[in-house]
Amino acid sequence: MKKSFLFLVAILALSFNSCREKTQEKTQDAIEAIGEDIEDNTKKAGEKIEEGADKVKKEIDEEIHQTDDINGEEDK
Questions:
Q1: Pairing status of strand 73-74 against strand 69-70
Q2: Residue numbers of the domain that contains 23
Q3: Angstrom distances, CA of residue 9 to CA of 4, 43, 50
Q4: CA–CA distances in Å: residue 32 to residues 27, 36, 46
């Protein structure tokens, strides 16, 4: 009986170790996915900032040269 109990304990220990490795792999995969999401969103934010800067630059240029389009009509 003692051998059966030790065998059962050994099997449980191995199964816990296996589960722990799977959990670590899943955690690593999740961390990598989060990193990729952060990288993608940072890139998108940078693109939006550049678009906004280009729009501001265009508006400033229109004001300087008095070619600002007001309500769809250019100054004449």
A1: antiparallel
A2: 2-65
A3: 9, 51, 61
A4: 9, 6, 21
Residue 51 carries which side chain, given as an amino acid letter? E
How many domains are contained in the chain?
1
pLDDT, tens digit (0-9, with 9 covering 90-100), for 36-56: 999 999 999 999 999 999 999
* pLDDT on residue 76: 47
Q: Chain centroid to CA 38: how far?
A: 3
Is residue 72 included in any domain, yes or no?
A: no
44 is a domain residue: yes
Determine, yes or no, domain membership for 53. Answer: yes
Q: For residue 38, give the amino acid letter.
A: I
Q: Can you give the pTM of this predicted structure?
A: 0.53
* 70, part of any domain: no
Is 69 in contact with 62 (CB distance < 8 Å)? Answer: yes
Which two tokens mark 28?
């690593």
